[in-house]
Write a sequence for this structure.
């Protein structure tokens, strides 16, 4: 038997690549907004420009990369194949891109019809993806912690979508809904129920696989995601019934779970075999530190809620969680996934003659971009505290950091195309042997 | 007098992709019909399962307390 890695079930590279190459430019747009609007973005979390920038990051960058990565890695991490991956990718990518832009513009210009259009497009993208993912995962057991976490994360995305549609309905059609409470629920389900649960599920595979660390203990990894979702459910019900003590208890639970996961990941990274400084390791370490700070703030707010009433508190928390933690994890993975997929497809197309991954994505520009991201993160934190002095500088640094990310990823895709051999009239089967 | 050969073990937990896949396939090539091997990984190798299924091999997977997946493959 030949040692061949079959690509029969693997989606074409074009399916995920479009998501990865587009996403950084949404982050650039958020930076341009901050650069041009300045301190008003940080005046309050309810400012239209703050909501527009937030959704450019959470939808245009985070959701975009997460959906693209899942289309690619479902067969690898779950043994589940989504039907017609290229068609799925085209529809989901197009609708997410236009929908995210429409939503940001609708916030900025308060246009009800644009809210309705954005809601429709995002409903199409996310519901189509969730339908395909649900069908692919049908019949998969729950014993594997990654598959269990994936299913819970998809449930989290459903809840986030429905809450978001309710809010869009309120903005587009004037539905009378408890605006502030629904927004908190929407944000919590999006960040903890969807993004957090997905991150945890993926970490069980990618941290040992790409960073050569020990594995996450089985019992802990099987329990973490379900307990996290239970805490979130408890928090949601308590919020709806204004049970203040229970809300704080659930917040403390969520914070402790986040601290446990981040602490465990840092511990595993400290015990890597063949440790080396690369963009993936650097991003995951700095991201875990930001996550620890954000979870520490959540725990502090649960114990001493008066502290969280300060104007800058939710802004610093959001910057740490979104820009410091989630975007760092995603950036690090992009620097590993794109060259890895490119290499695999070149091996397949070139009969085992692909260049090393470092040729597709050299470490030096990736690590330089990591430094730019850290600088941008620092200025964003300063801007949350002193908007008048630092907001425009933070916007400029954020543009720079994410344009560099977009450029680096684009260069990797360009090198992949250069190495790709011309189609042959006849040939043997491809593989990695 | 014939003796049962010792069970071949491939500990691929600290190997970079695609080495675990490649080395598993190489070890499978050396197995006699009915012989088994053990593969240790920190993840479930779904792409490998597809190849095993296609080639008519049997396998049994269990999750160990330290997070390792112990996969017993029989040719």
């Amino acid at each position: 038997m030949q040692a061949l890695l079959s690509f029969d079930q693997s989606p074409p590279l074009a399916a995920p690549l479009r998501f990865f190459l587009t996403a950084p430019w949404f982050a650039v747009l958020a930076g341009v907004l901050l650069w041009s609007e300045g301190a008003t973005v940080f005046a309050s979390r309810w400012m239209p420009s703050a909501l527009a920038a937030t959704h450019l990051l959470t939808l245009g960058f985070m959701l975009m990369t997460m959906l693209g990565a899942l289309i690619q890695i479902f067969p690898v991490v779950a043994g589940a194949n989504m039907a017609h991956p290229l068609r799925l990718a085209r529809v989901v990518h197009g609708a997410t891109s236009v929908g995210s832009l429409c939503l940001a513009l609708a916030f900025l210009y308060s246009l009800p019809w644009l809210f309705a259009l954005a809601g429709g497009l995002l409903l199409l993208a996310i519901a189509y993806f969730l339908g395909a993912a649900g069908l692919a995962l049908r019949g998969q057991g729950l014993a594997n912690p990654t598959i269990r976490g994936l299913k819970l994360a998809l449930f989290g995305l459903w809840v986030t979508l429905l809450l978001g549609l309710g809010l869009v309905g309120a903005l587009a059609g004037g539905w009378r809904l408890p605006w502030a409470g629904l927004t908190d629920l929407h944000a919590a389900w999006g960040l903890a129920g969807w993004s957090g649960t997905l991150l945890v599920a993926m970490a069980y595979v990618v941290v040992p696989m790409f960073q050569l660390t020990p594995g996450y203990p089985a019992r802990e990894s099987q329990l973490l995601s379900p307990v996290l979702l239970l805490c979130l459910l408890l928090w949601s019900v308590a919020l709806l019934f204004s049970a203040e003590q229970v809300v704080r208890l659930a917040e403390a639970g969520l914070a402790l779970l986040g601290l446990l996961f981040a602490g465990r990941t840092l511990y595993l990274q400290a015990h890597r075999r063949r440790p080396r400084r690369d963009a993936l390791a650097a991003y995951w370490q700095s991201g875990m530190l930001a996550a620890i700070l954000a979870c520490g703030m959540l725990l502090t707010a649960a114990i001493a809620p008066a502290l969280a009433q300060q104007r800058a508190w939710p802004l610093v928390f959001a910057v740490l969680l979104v820009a410091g933690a989630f975007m760092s994890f995603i950036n690090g993975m992009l620097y590993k996934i794109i060259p890895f997929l490119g290499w695999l497809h070149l091996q397949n197309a070139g009969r085992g003659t692909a260049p090393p991954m470092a040729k597709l994505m050299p470490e030096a520009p990736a690590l330089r971009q990591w430094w730019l991201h850290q600088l941008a993160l620092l200025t964003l934190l300063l801007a949350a505290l002193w908007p008048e002095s630092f907001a425009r500088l933070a916007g400029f640094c954020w543009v720079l950091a994410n344009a560099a990310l977009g450029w680096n990823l684009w260069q990797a895709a360009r090198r992949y195309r250069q190495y790709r051999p011309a189609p042959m009239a006849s040939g043997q089967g491809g593989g990695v042997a | 007098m014939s003796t049962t050969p010792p069970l071949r073990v491939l500990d691929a937990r600290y190997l970079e992709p695609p080495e675990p896949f490649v080395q598993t396939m190489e070890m499978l090539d050396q197995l006699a019909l009915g012989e088994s091997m053990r593969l240790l990984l920190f993840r479930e190798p779904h792409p490998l399962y597809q190849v095993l299924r296609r080639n008519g091999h049997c396998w049994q997977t269990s999750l160990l307390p330290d997070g390792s997946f112990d996969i017993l493959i029989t040719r």
Remarks:
- Chain B has two helices and four strands.
- Chain B touches chain A at residues 13-14, 16-18, 21-22, 25-26, 28-29, 42-44, 46-47, 49-51, 54-55, 63-68 (CB under 8 Å).
- Residues 19-30 of chain B form the longest helix (12 residues).
